[in-house]
Design brief:
This protein is an alpha+beta fold and about 450 residues long. The protein has helices spanning about 35-45, 70, 90-95, 120-130, 180-190, 230-245, 255-265, 285-295, 295-305, 315-330, 335-340, 370-435, 440-445, and strands spanning about 15-20, 20-30, 50-55, 75-85, 100-105, 110-115, 140-145, 165-170, 175, 200, 275-280, 305-315, 350-355, 360-365.
Length: about 450
């Protein structure tokens, strides 16, 4: 069966353009030309078209500005790297180059798409991967790095492929055997050197010890839920940054009521979304969610511009009970249901809320299994619902205001008419008094 070409609707293509430490998101129709990407980037970066080099196209040759996206066969989501050609200093040029590293986790059958700038090191990449998979740094076995490579080498200097460099990680089967005191005494008695040697895990005896430190049990980011709200969120943020770093969405420091008031208690056009983030340190997806969502520059900007972000830790039962009661009180059961029904291994939870006509609604619920794209789409959809609700409420307000003005004008007209009628009556009475008090009227009356 042939499909009528006129019936085919071209969907917009989402471009994620990595420039320095930021990611610029554009949505453009498939029939647009490559030049349109550069035109949008001119407004967002201040670079001229001649100063831009876009890396990451699937075809090896240089892409002409006149080619359409449809001609290139581009899919719905497309990653590009913007490089500035405006004579920046060497470090600035290295930062502006962003490398797409596609890491294949063989042990866990996962693919991680990571983006790092040229001034970051190999060690930083490896340490970041420890947050995504349970392979400790010391047990990582890598394939795909340009050989030889040093952990402290800058990515800009090691010859990574563009637009994408593929790597593979697995768990090394070799460990270092730590000699026992008996081994050392025997070696000392024979004046022999003390050797440490590698051996396969299957051949290890009880004295074989891995050099990687044990993974510590992760505790709550909020060990004391009885603190005043502002102090509790400050403690949450302090522990969060110790564990995950300082780059994250902006947390509102205050109670849930204060955060909700800050988002909603303002003129209708200025209202923002209200995001509630419930963190659980015992859930495995939390590391991935933090790195891919809370630390993503695109979402950091989106939440900063369009939402108030309030966090809480539900690792401990008392903290969970505290926030459950507050959610039920300030929003209702619709906010409590996700907390009590989500499986422990699917945390964290992100609730995106909006306010309409005095009531707060949960517009979207996401758990820790969702990706960056899922959260971005949900945030945009919630924002669209929020804007429509704002427009409807604003239109109702304007209608009420117009009706009020009409009634007020009618009242004013009625009062003016009433005053005019009363003035006429007074004038008539005065004229009548004058007429009846005149001599002619009096004599005429007596004559009759």
């Amino acid at each position: 069966m042939e499909v009528d070409e006129e019936m085919v609707v071209d969907e917009d293509i989402v471009f994620l353009i990595h420039y320095g430490e930021q990611t610029i998101r554009l949505e453009l129709p498939a029939q647009e030309r490559v030049e349109s990407v550069k035109i949008h980037l001119m407004r967002k970066t201040g670079l001229l078209k001649a100063e831009m080099e876009l890396l990451g196209w699937d075809i090896p040759d240089n892409v002409s500005d006149d080619v359409t996206f449809a001609d290139l066969g581009i899919s719905k989501e497309y990653h590009l790297v913007l490089r500035a050609l405006n004579g920046a200093d060497p470090d600035g040029e290295r930062i502006s180059v962003v490398y797409h590293l596609q890491v294949n986790d063989v042990e866990n059958d996962e693919i991680y798409n990571l983006f790092f700038n040229g001034m970051q090191t190999v060690r930083e990449v490896k340490q970041h991967v420890t947050q995504l998979c349970p392979i400790p740094f010391e047990r990582q076995h890598w394939e795909g790095w340009p050989w030889p490579v040093d952990d402290d080498a800058l990515l800009f200097n090691i010859g990574l492929k563009t637009p994408r460099h593929e790597l593979q990680i697995s768990r090394t089967r070799n460990v270092v055997r730590s000699p026992t005191s008996n081994d050392r005494s025997r070696s000392a008695g024979r004046n022999e050197p003390d050797h440490s040697y590698d051996m396969d895990e299957d051949d290890l005896d009880d004295d074989a010890i891995e050099i990687s430190p044990p993974v510590p049990q992760r505790g709550s980011l909020l060990p004391n839920a009885l603190l005043p709200p502002a102090e509790a969120i400050a403690l949450f943020e302090l522990n969060f940054e110790k564990r995950y770093g300082h780059n994250h969405v902006q947390f509102f420091k205050g109670s849930i009521r204060e955060a909700m008031s800050f988002a909603f208690d303002r003129p209708v056009p200025d209202r923002q979304l209200f995001a509630i983030y419930l963190h659980n340190e015992k859930s495995f997806p939390v590391n991935i969610f933090v790195s891919q969502v809370l630390q993503n520059p695109v979402l950091i900007d989106r939440f900063r511009d369009h939402a108030v972000f309030w966090p809480w830790d539900v690792t401990l039962p008392e903290s969970r009970a505290t926030v459950q009661g507050e959610l039920a009180e300030v929003i209702g059961e619709q906010a409590v249901i996700p907390l009590v029904t989500t499986r422990p291994d699917s945390f964290p939870i992100l609730l995106i809320c909006g306010k309409t006509k005095g009531s707060v609604d949960v517009l979207r619920v996401l758990d820790g299994t969702k990706s960056f794209t899922d959260v971005l789409d949900a945030l945009e959809l919630a924002g669209e619902i929020h804007r429509r609700n704002q427009e409807n409420e604003l239109a109702e307000q304007q209608t009420r205001e117009r009706n009020r003005l009409v009634v007020e004008e009618q009242n004013q007209a009625y009062q003016a008419s009433l005053v005019a009628d009363q003035a006429k009556v007074r004038y008539t009475l005065i004229q009548c008094r004058k007429l009846f008090s005149s001599p002619i009227c009096h004599s005429t009356f007596v004559f009759v």
